[in-house]
Amino acid sequence: MLDATTAPRREAARPVTAAGGRRSLMRTLAPWWYLTPALVLLVTFTYIPVASMLGYSFTDWDGLDPNPDFVGADNYVQLFTRPELFHVFFVSIYYLLAAFVQLAAALYFAFVLSFKTRFRNFFKGVLFFPYLINGVAISFVFLFFFRPGGTLDSLLAIVGTHPGKLWLGDPDLVNVSLSSVSVWRYTGLSFVLFLGAIQSIPADLYEAAGLDGASRWQILRHIIVPGIKPILSLSIILAVSGSLAVFEIPFVMTGGAGESNTFVIQTIKLGFTFNKTGLAAAAAVVLLAIVLVITWIQRRLVPDERTDLT
């Protein structure tokens, strides 16, 4: 049996419990209130357009007809069976190889300049400066660099070499020339990412390695590379996706003429020059799918390392 003093205590505790439940509910909902504007923008300007693009990729829409015809997977079949459309995948190989050259150069310079080096800050600025320049301006600069009798030919003439090559007109050289411009421009970005990651490694590891007599190569292999693995993994994803999405430099320098047509340039031409918006949408979906698959494979091969603090 309950005495007279027990019942009021329990009844008085009920409002406190209800108030605590409301506070708990507000704490649970609070993050969603902050996330709602970002989610609305993300859905409106990302997921809905992607869904529309996917729908258009199964039609023969020309960008104007309000009632496009459904063609099924015909657009995707064309992308992988028509040689003039499928060729852009081979062009991307040049930029992919150039991207790995860029990553190797950026890692090397970040490793060297992470130690005490004379004029270290000066070289940091020199390496990062190309990334600050507008891509269109860079393209015009290198148009003069690669033109016949231009800067490159003049430099080669100084050392006694007169190749007489059309660097942007020869089908065997145009993609090598264009991808080298990408290396020059984007090495600075990768360099800054690697340098920041290397400097975040505890100095005690370097001191211990020095006391053990480790060489610079051993420090790079056993301390730096494992320590910057997340940044290295991110850079590889950006390099692969960037090699497929090259647009600015080849578009300004060659307009995609000859063998320099890239995936994005071809997609734009299909949509806005030839009015094959459905086929262009299919090309964009393929590009998105390739990037997602590469990201998934990378996550499987190099999973995130998380430390359980509980």
Overview of the structural elements:
The protein has 310 residues and is mainly alpha-helical. The chain contains 13 helices and no strands. The protein has a single domain, classed as MetI-like (MetI-like fold, Orthogonal Bundle). The longest helix is centred in the N-terminal third of the chain and has 51 residues. The protein is flat. About 2% of the residues have low confidence.
What's the SSE blueprint?
Elements: H1 6-56, H2 74-81, H3 83-113, H4 120-132, H5 135-146, H6 151-158, H7 174-199, H8 203-211, H9 216-227, H10 229-244, H11 248-253, H12 263-273, H13 277-301
Helix pairs in contact: 1-13, 2-13, 3-7, 3-10, 4-7, 10-13, 12-13
Tell me the helix content.
Answer: over 70%
Radius of gyration: 28 Å
- What is the element string, with H for helices and E for strands? HHHHHHHHHHHHH
Shape: flat
Structural class: mainly alpha
Q: Gap between N and C termini, in Å? A: 44 Å
Q: Write the CATH architecture name.
A: Orthogonal Bundle
In total, how many beta strands?
Answer: 0
Low-confidence stretches: 10-14
Question: How is the CATH topology named?
Answer: MetI-like fold
| Strand percentage | under 5%
Largest sheet: none
Overall domain count:
1
